[in-house]
Specification:
The protein is α/β, with parallel strands linked by helices. It has helices spanning 2-5, 31-37, 108-113, 140-154, 169-180, 203-210, 214-229, 231-245, 253-271, 286-296, 304-321, 357-369, 416-430; strands at 42-47, 57-66, 76-85, 92-96, 116-120, 162-167, 187-191, 375-379, 398-402. The protein folds into two domains: 2-198 and 357-430, Alpha/Beta hydrolase fold, catalytic domain (Rossmann fold, 3-Layer(aba) Sandwich); 203-346, no CATH class. The protein is globular and about 65 Å long.
């Protein structure tokens, strides 16, 4: 998910939106720190900075986890957790990260609930990396088991209501956790979380062919077509750019360039950062076409450096959680190098990639038929909305789709009616009263 990929860069995102970073001296050792140290699995507790408007104290905590929860006596690794404390009697927001933890500032939901906040780094990312990277243990179920162990321990300190939340891959992580441990938290609020049902889910094709207005879609296709047709004059500019950035392309320069063009439409609708009027016309000067390509920067994902940065995610995508491919019907006659493109080329080299459809079959069905107290949030124009969870009325789940919204749409983008639905749903599930802003 290129902003499930780009999410690593972008969407700590929405969860860290409303409260600005503050700087002050961290608190020394405290009663809370001593209580955290006494919890099962905790091996290190360090005071860290926190937002003094939201929290009283905060700690970076390392928790020893089994690499395989089905074999707890075997290999271990340390998982990073941030505990930001507002009060023992207050609710808790569990931020399930899909990648590394980027800090502990109060997020949107934490701010609205006046809650404690627990940020959990995903296994194999950031500082939560096992001594030996055994890929087969990077699974949805093992991640859910990590969260269950951490939440079970922290509930001895925070016995009140719990809500989990995450953005994009972090939102997926919250939903996966809900499926395997449905009673661990009282409410789940995933933002922009796709639920794919295939290794390369074809539902993305229909979205890109129908969403937005036809004039914009035509402009996007026109730009992509021009980039293919004029590859010979543009590739030199791309080569100079890659050399300047010290990027290498084991795939081949032309292959990486063409994949970047195919990715452009996905990124355009997902991020919403490019206005349709900014898309160059097909007959624009080569320098103009290149400058726009450089701004979109989809080429980077197909460099060796981009592949290395996202190989953990791509392993998960192509073994369990699914991804997407490209409909090349409009470009077959003008593509010079790629014949049968697949994002599988981005998976880690030398690692066995076998897709297990059973995981997402279970997740998709559970979310539709059994997962209660889930508030889904999507942007109307976000490409990943193509694989959002459809509600069929079998649970009390609620969905808010932000009109004109893209990846990372959230509370600030809601209509008054959507804000009220957001408030009333959480009030009902968490048994509290929220102040209206």
């Amino acid at each position: 998910m290129r902003v499930i990929r780009s999410l690593v860069l972008v969407l700590v995102g929405h969860l860290l939106l409303l409260v600005p970073a503050r700087s002050q001296d961290v608190k020394p050792d405290s009663e809370l720190a001593r209580k955290i140290r006494s919890l099962p699995g905790v091996v290190e507790v360090r005071a860290t900075r926190f937002d003094e408007k939201q929290f009283q104290e905060a700690y970076e905590v390392m928790v020893e986890q089994p690499l395989d929860h089905q074999n707890p006596g075997a290999d271990k690794f340390r998982q990073r957790v941030f505990v930001s404390h507002a009060g023992y009697n207050k609710p808790v927001v569990l931020v399930t990260e899909g990648y590394a933890v980027y800090g502990n500032r109060a997020g949107e939901l934490t701010h609205l609930l006046g809650a404690n906040q627990i940020n959990v780094e995903h296994r194999f990312f950031g500082k939560s990396v096992p001594p030996e990277k055994k890929w087969t243990f990077l699974t949805v179920k093992q991640s859910a088991d990590d969260l269950h162990a951490i939440v079970s321990a922290l509930k001895t300190l925070y016995p009140g209501k719990w809500a989990s939340t995450g953005v994009s891959k972090g939102g997926q992580t919250a939903l996966f956790y809900k499926c395997f441990y449905p009673d661990d938290v009282d409410a789940t609020v995933p933002y922009s979380a796709p639920i794919n049902v295939a290794q390369e889910d074809p539902r993305l094709y229909r979205f890109l062919e129908t969403e937005g207005d036809e004039a914009t879609r035509a402009r996007v296709r026109g730009y992509q077509g021009a980039m293919f047709k004029r590859e010979d004059e543009l590739l030199l500019l791309v080569k100079e750019w890659a050399e300047k950035m010290k990027w290498t392309t084991g795939l081949g320069l032309s292959e990486a360039y063409e994949y970047g063009i195919l990715e452009y439409s996905f990124g355009f609708w997902q991020s919403g950062s490019i206005k349709p009027s900014e898309i160059p016309a097909p007959d624009a000067p080569a320098a103009t076409l290149f400058a726009h390509y450089k701004k979109a920067n989809t080429f980077f994902y197909y460099t060796d450096q981009g592949q290395q940065a996202f190989e953990l995610f791509m392993y998960q995508a192509f073994t369990e959680i699914g991804y997407y491919n490209y409909n090349i019907a409009d470009f077959k006659d003008v593509m010079k190098t790629l014949k049968n493109p697949t994002n599988r080329v981005l998976c880690p080299k030398g690692v066995e990639i076998v897709f297990n459809p059973a995981t997402m079959d279970f997740v998709y069905r559970f979310l539709q038929y059994e997962a209660a107290n889930v508030l889904y949030i999507y942007g109307e124009l976000d490409t990943w909305g193509a694989t959002q969870v459809p509600l069929i009325g079998r649970t009390n789940a609620v969905k808010i789709v932000v009109k004109g919204g893209h990846h990372g749409a959230g509370f600030r983008d809601f209509s008054p009616e959507q804000k009220e639905l957001f408030y009333t749903s959480l009030e009902r599930w968490l048994n509290l009263k929220l102040p209206r802003s």
